[in-house]
Design brief:
Length: 206
């Protein structure tokens, strides 16, 4: 563990910013997950349900980063390594559920319906998450923290997912029901890919 005096003041400020942004994100994602899942189950939208679940996964990543930059762990390379691996695992939690849920909905003949609540909450995330994601990836590079950069990547995926969900909902209203499950499967594939990148620490370099 490095002594506090071995870290530049700018590094310590960035560490506090990373923790503060993660706390802010954690609060919003809790609301986002509840609203997204509620709207998704009401509308039978597997993409919207998957997006709501991905908010829970993102919240876990935010919690991991808060843990990483709290107390003596702020200066611990061991804590960074553990946080990096934990964030990677959090990516992998989502994919199996999405695949099973898509299969179940297709087998049962469920089709996504319109949902104003889903449109509103995904639109808010489409605007806010890129700002948080870019800020965290920059902090991750400055801190040398793949865990922080990985959390930022999850925020960017959330924004892209929100766009995909909105497209799926709009397509469903035109009778293109297959777009919604296709978006859900695409989210599963992206989660698996980013999990491997986070495990190797690539989120800090790209």
């Amino acid at each position: 563990m490095l002594d506090i005096h071995e870290r530049p003041a700018a590094w310590l400020r960035d560490a506090r910013r990373a923790r503060a942004l993660s706390v802010l994100t954690l609060a919003w994602l809790s609301v986002e997950a509840i609203l997204g899942l509620t709207a998704g189950f009401r509308a039978h939208s597997v993409a919207l349900i998957g997006w709501g679940l991905s908010a829970l996964v993102e919240a876990l990543a935010s919690l991991i980063v808060v843990w990483r930059f709290t107390g003596g762990r702020t200066f611990s390379e061991v804590a960074e390594h553990r946080a990096q691996r934990a964030v990677a695992v959090s990516f992998w939690l989502l994919a199996p559920y999405l695949v099973v849920h898509v299969w179940h909905d297709l087998d049962a003949g469920h089709r996504a319906g319109p949902t104003m609540l889903g449109v509103v909450v995904t639109a808010i995330s489409l605007v806010s998450m890129p700002v948080l994601g870019v800020a965290k990836r920059r902090l991750g590079r400055r801190l040398g923290s793949p865990a922080t950069a990985g959390e930022g990547t999850q925020n960017l995926i959330c924004a892209a997912s929100a766009a995909g969900v909105l497209v799926g909902l709009a397509a469903g209203s035109r009778g293109w029901w297959w777009v919604d499950p296709a978006v859900a499967l695409a989210l599963a594939a992206v989660a698996v890919r980013e999990g491997f990148r986070a495990w190797r620490g690539h989120g800090c370099c790209h």
